[in-house]
Write a structure and sequence with these properties.
- The chain is mainly alpha-helical and 470 residues long.
- The chain has two domains: 191 residues, Up-down Bundle (Growth Hormone, Chain: A), CATH 1.20.1250; 220 residues, Up-down Bundle (Growth Hormone, Chain: A), CATH 1.20.1250.
- It is built from 19 helices and no strands.
- Helix 3 crosses helix 5, helix 14 packs antiparallel against helix 16 and helix 14 runs antiparallel to helix 19.
- The longest helix has 33 residues.
- InterPro entries: MFS_dom (IPR020846), MFS_sugar_transport-like (IPR005828), MFS_trans_sf (IPR036259), MFS_Trehalose_Transporter (IPR050549), Sugar/inositol_transpt (IPR003663), Sugar_transporter_CS (IPR005829).
- It is found in: Membrane.
- It is a multi-pass membrane protein.
Amino acid sequence: MYLKVNVPPVFKQIFAASGPLIVTLGSGMTVGFSAVLLPQLKDDRSTIKISSHQESWIASMAALPMAVGSVLGGVAMDRLGRKTTNLLICVPFVLGWTAVSMATGVNGVYAGRLLTGLCTGLLGPPTAVYIAEVTEQRYRGAALAMISFSVSAGILAVHTMGTFLGWRLVSALCSTVPFAGYALIWFTPESPVWLREDEDRRRRRRQTTAVGGVPSRPPPEVDTQQPPPSPPAELDAQPPPLPAAKPTARQCFGRPSFLGPLAVLSAFFFVQQFSGVNAVAFYSVTLLKRVGPDLNEYHCTMALDVIRLAVSVLACGLTKRYGRRSLAVVSAVGTCASLLCLAASVRDTGAQSTGTVAVQAIPAPTATASLTPVLSIVAYMVFVNIGLVPLPWIMSGEMFPGYCRELGSGLSTCFGFFMFYTVIQISPYMLTNIGTSMTFYIFGTVSGVGALFLYLCLPETKNKSLEDTT
């Protein structure tokens, strides 16, 4: 006798999304790992010695292949399926972290960072599209916002481990995350949208083969001693129509229903990255240390990580209650205001500056001057993480029509990762040559102009089916 348990659909959807979200923790760990790795490698007791040039390569090595990986991830999930693609990504992810933990020289660190960065890019499109396709529209926004939460949780986890453990042990522990994600994904279903598309492709192949004169299956043997059977009545009925073939990538670029979402989402990613989400997060530790010189650098980083994680939880609730456009506009306006306040609270010219320009930019601590940068940074972390950070990733799985969802998601996230790498590379030069204040003014201006653009151009996808959003 078997006991039948009726599991509510929402729990099934949570379970289906949990595997990719667990692996996404590894993406956050990849982003935050350099803050753990580099200080320990520069320590005099380190067994691997690095130069300043090698330090910059280690920091950017993971960002280099992310854009390429996102395009490959889009292609793979169309050919192999969302679930299979996510399973395959877990294998090199584990190998990449293992390579870092076992590295005997800087080349081993390069290889591991390159592999984990590639997997981070590969993971972006299939995770967003899979979660969008396996969740109901009323839960879809909150489920997709969990991607940003997982990244924030991964950053906090790796920084916490790095505070107490060596980098080799930290990377070994990080390798268990994609392994656990693989085990969960194994028991989750394939996306029903992809299964329908795959069945349409198979039907099209069978019917095309039959029309071409080659039967799709061998004919049954005929007994010549028996009279031929009468044809069944079903043969009089018309066969089901041949499913339309999906357009090629070149054909997609000729359709406004593809180009429009691609342009809007690419601009959204541009606003996200040029709001300084990564540059400000990096230099905010230096700003806080100027206010309190005795603060521990790792503790400052963890405090900011906790704020980011808490706001990511808040964003999950906000995306379920409020529309995408209104949330994006409020986030961009708040980000603009907090960046302009931060820029006004620092004083520097940038001329002949060094890497410590962010420290020199803060005026001597007074009751007002010491609080303004801190409050501005906290306000910035809140506003940027409720909208500009999660929404482009959420909408990359929602905005594109079914015939080009894989291509559109892959290309838009590729552009987002390329902007991420660009900002990481140019931010030190901006801070050195034009100064901290002017750099933050530029980031704030981009956020303000972006708010106007998002208000005018961003479509609303909340509580709409994937077919309605297109």
